[in-house]
Design brief:
The complex is a heterodimer. By secondary structure, chain A is an all-alpha fold. Chain A contains ten helices and no strands. In chain B, the strands form two sheets. A six-stranded mixed beta sheet of chain B has the order 6-7-8-3-9-10, with helices on both faces. A four-stranded antiparallel beta sheet of chain B has the order 2-1-4-5, covered by helices on one side. Classes of the chains: A mainly alpha, B alpha/beta. At the A-B interface, α7 and α8 of A face α2 of B. The structure holds adenosine-5'-triphosphate (ATP) and magnesium ion (MG). Adenosine-5'-triphosphate (ATP) binds next to β2 and α1 of chain B.
Chain lengths: 262, 270
Amino acid sequence: MKRLLSRGTLAPWLATIALFVFWEAVVRLFGIAEFILPTPTATFAALFEFWGPIWHNAFQTLFTTMVGFAIAVVFGLVLGVAVGASALLYQSIYPLLIGFNSIPKVAVVPILVLWFGIGTVPAIITAFLISFFPIVVNVATGIATLEPEMQDVLRSLGARRIDILRKVGVPRSMPYFFASLKISITLAFVGSVISETVAANSGIGHLMLQASSSFRVPLVFAGLLVIAFLGIVMYAVAALAERRLTGWATRGQDGAVYATGG
Amino acid sequence: MEGRLPDEPAFVDITDVSLAYGGDDHQTLALENASMAIGRGEFVAVVGPSGCGKSSLLKLVSGLHPASAGSVRVGGDPVGGPLKIVGMAFQNPIMLPWRTTLQNVLLPLEIVEPHRSVYRRRKKEFREKADSLLETVGLQGFGDRFPWQLSGGMQQRASLCRALIHEPDLLLLDEPFAALDAFTREELWDVLQDLWMRNGFTVVLVTHDLREAVYLADRVDVVSNRPGRVIFSRDVTLPRPRRLDNTYDADFVELVHELRDHISKARQAP
Ligand SMILES: Nc1ncnc2c1ncn2[C@@H]1O[C@H](COP(=O)(O)OP(=O)(O)OP(=O)(O)O)[C@@H](O)[C@H]1O
Ligand SMILES: [Mg+2]
């Protein structure tokens, strides 16, 4: 058991190291030029060399992502509960949501720039726009698929609809909600970086754009690594919250709750 | 509590009720022209073959499901939706998995008035009450466990507590002891009988166990094969409190046999 556990925690590290080794080997073996694909060593070197600006811009990206994500969580929860609780709302809004989610968010950024100018606000809004959809879909699904038997337990007590929603609808949708957070947080990163790449003065996306226009490709890759790292950390936070708060859904085991939509 | 006087209006009055499930093309007629009258404070057991519409009957009385035809009245008023005076134990325990057993038992007090408005203030008292109820059904110490950490029979006992906690006027029990071993079941017969004799609520108990029906009820109604309707009704006038020794008495055994004959008839003809 103990061996299995340590193997379980070691595995992702080993896989990561293996990827870097493979990457390094391929670049050296085929003699790929640095401005096309730098080696991991060069990338890490750039990471340390430009630590100051990277840290500064990463913080900016983290900030816009978290603000956009927070808005998405609140908005997604409210809309998800409403859509899940009302069949009429479900029927009327759902197609709209699908349509909206199909729009590539890169296409929206120029419009946002037109409205809000270049900077933090478009990045926050893009992060929000791209990440709220999975939350809405999951929460709505959790509530709409509430077992009639469970509703009957409350109905037999003369409970009002709002009571049923509060006492069983919302608690039951929480595993769905937390599952969607894991998808949503990584999408929020995608959103803010997209926006920064197109229209911003700071942020990792902006840094990467500048680095690539001056052919400092290792720095571009260093930026990618930082984004990936931040994404993993935020995912882990969401996963931890999920395990802590909805352990009942997996009956106390650390099994995964799978997300729908996204 | 000795059974209903003939001219007293029935507390639960079901007249010529039919209940059909499903749409126009795929109908299941669960009940047809069923009638039943239950006096206030009466303890009625309903027995009948599987699938004959006993659970449906309880849903009808509780207002969870509307009748397709006929009238259902409780306390003199037509039932138009879920009633507030009902405590119901479903055939499956249906506990809320995110709540502990104790929190599950407390649920009705969070919903039903007048408990609801004083819930916060009297929470401690309510918890003690729930604890002592859990103890009477042999679940002391399990209040903090989640329902999925309990066995099927334990969950059923907890759901019985949930049906009782708000002291409803009308208790609807759908095979509440079906998942229990014989000893625990017989213990709970006495628990239920004592509670009923003390508090005088009205009980409709659906069961497959004829001994259970005769032991607990003032009257046993036999329901026919689907579509269900009451085809035989037997008053049980054995003195109370009934004790387990009485189940070996000649008149008790005779009653059980008589009901058994009627059940086997019910199984053959609708
Ligand atoms: N929700 C439903 N939709 C369609 N048909 C149903 C539904 N619930 C019950 N029925 C049908 O109604 C009939 C009566 O069901 P009910 O659950 O009342 O039987 P029961 O007497 O409680 O049986 P058992 O003793 O096995 O619990 C059955 O034939 C069943 O198929
Ligand atoms: Mg049934």
